[in-house]
Structure formats: C-alpha cells, structure tokens
Amino acid sequence: MNAATPALQLSGLRKSFGQMDIIRGVDLSVVEGERHAIIGPNGAGKSTLFHLVSGHLQPSAGSIRLRGEEIAGLAPQVINRRGLSRSFQVTNIFPRLSVWENVRCATLWALGYRYSFWRDVDKLKDANRRTEEILAEIDLLDRWRTPAGVLTYGEQRALEIGLTIAGNADVLLLDEPTAGMSHAETERVVKLIRKVSENRTLLMIEHDMHVVFDLADRISVLVYGEVIASDTPARIKANAAVQQAYLGTEAA
Ligand SMILES: Nc1ncnc2c1ncn2[C@@H]1O[C@H](COP(=O)(O)OP(=O)(O)OP(=O)(O)O)[C@@H](O)[C@H]1O
User: Fold this and answer.
1) Are β-strands 69-70 and 61-66 bridged in parallel, bridged antiparallel, or unpaired?
2) How far is the CA of 49 from the centre of ligand 1 (A)?
3) Can you give the residue ranges of the ABC transporter domain (predicted)?
4) What is the ipTM of this complex?
C-alpha cells in the first residue's frame, strides 16, 4: 500500500432491503490515521453502513476497500483478520467473567488459539502480556478481577473498546461509543478513544455533537443513504446543505 491509499474506501456502495433502497450510492474515503465520524439523522442508514463494512450485511452493489483490498461481501471474521475491528452498540462482553478473562479471551482468539491453547505455555504468556497491555491502555488494570457485569456502564464501554483493540486491528469502527452515558462517563470515554486511536484509523458513528466536533478530524454526513458532505469539522459546521438537512442550530 502506498501512502496515498486510503485506509478505507467505499465506492458506489448500495444496500436495498426488498424494494427499499437504504444505502444509495455511498462514496467515502477514510485516510490512514484519521478520526472520521459519521453523523446523520435517525434512520439515515449509519448502522446499515457499518454492517456492510464489517461484513455483517452483504452489499447490493459497490466496493469496499480496506487498504486497497476489496473486502465487500467477505465474512466478518475474515474482515476482522485483515485488520478491521468493530464494536457494537449492544454490549458484547461476558458479564460473569472478570475483566481480565474477558480481555484474555479476545486476545487468545486474536492470537489464533481456539480450543487447545493450554498446550503452549509460552504463547499463553504472550496472551497474558497482551491482556495486561490492553487493560493498561483502557485504564482498567485496577479492576482486573471484577466481574464485567458489575462494572459501571462507562467502564463496560471502555472494556468493549478493549475487546475491539485486542486483535491488533488498525482500523476501528465504533458504533455510538458514548450512547447513554453521563457527562463524566462521556469525558472518560472520549479521552480513551483519543488514546486508542492515536496510532489507528477510526471510523465512528456518534450522535453527541460535542463528542463529534471534539474528536473528529473529518466528518461525513449521511442523509437518506447518501453522503451529502465529507469534510473538516469547521467546514461541515459552515456547510449550508448540512445545516438545512441535519445540524440545524445544534452545532452553531
Ligand atoms: N434488516 C432490515 N430490513 C429492512 N429494513 C431495514 C433493515 N435494517 C435497517 N432497515 C431500515 O433501514 C433504515 C436505516 O436504518 P439504520 O439503522 O441503518 O439507520 P441509522 O442511521 O443507524 O439510524 P439510528 O441513528 O436511529 O440508529 C431504517 O429505515 C431501517 O428501518
């Protein structure tokens, strides 16, 4: 891949459910290393777009390139192995397992262990080391023994981000990472997202405009299944079509 190849590039992407055209020809480029937010009104197709990129839905037409390689229509685990990892709005953790066990499961899986990992003690050590690194990165080292189910909501979302980065993916998709959070929890998760995306490419769906304008290097606005603008936060804020279609006075 040369420096000009986008981390992620969607071209002419379409998705229909029966007669309904939900994604209607999306072109979108996410530059390596940037934090890119997708915003848009309810029902615009943001989650559907994420499902297409992560392989959970098959496109009706168009192309999705990850570092220049076509991934449209591949299975989610194949896309994941190629370096794209996605978190879910619905929490993805095992509530009865400890924080440590949750992250270690994801790490073992990412290192290629399935059912015989206890046979290789050195590799197990690798997994333990990696688990510790991730817990440090998401600021949950001091909660390592705690069952994930009793963490605060904000901590659970942090853990979920930990599971998303466990596989060494360098393109992260975060789906509404601050949804349902208090102000303090949001601040903590924003800090965490800033940290984990420092050496990764980030594409996120986010409804909280403060978070979007605080974090994103670029913003794409999805309205009725089409990207009507893709630009820097300042230009998005000043874009008359975006104001009219979506932002209103909210971000003014
Ligand atoms: N499996 C499906 N079958 C039929 N219609 C669907 C399906 N999935 C989504 N849709 C429709 O596609 C449209 C876009 O939904 P989507 O969830 O992608 O929007 P969104 O922008 O993520 O909305 P929100 O911000 O409310 O989460 C909606 O009208 C929804 O009803």
Assistant:
1) antiparallel
2) 9
3) 8-249
4) 0.96
Phi, psi of 140, deg, nearest 5: -120, 15
Report CA(225)–ligand 1 centroid distance (Å).
Answer: 10
Do strands 35-39 and 218-223 pair parallel, antiparallel, or not at all (unpaired)? parallel
CA-to-CA distance for 219 and 235, rounded, in angstroms? 9
Give the global pTM.
0.90
Give the CATH architecture of domain 1-75+207-251.
3-Layer(aba) Sandwich (3.40)
Could you give the CA distance from residue 250 to residue 246 in angstroms, rounded to a whole number? 9
Neighbours of 207 (CB within 10 A): 14
To test ligand 1's pocket by mutation, which of 48, 88, 222 has the most ligand atoms within 8 angstroms of CB?
48
Residue spans per domain, the chain: 1-75+207-251
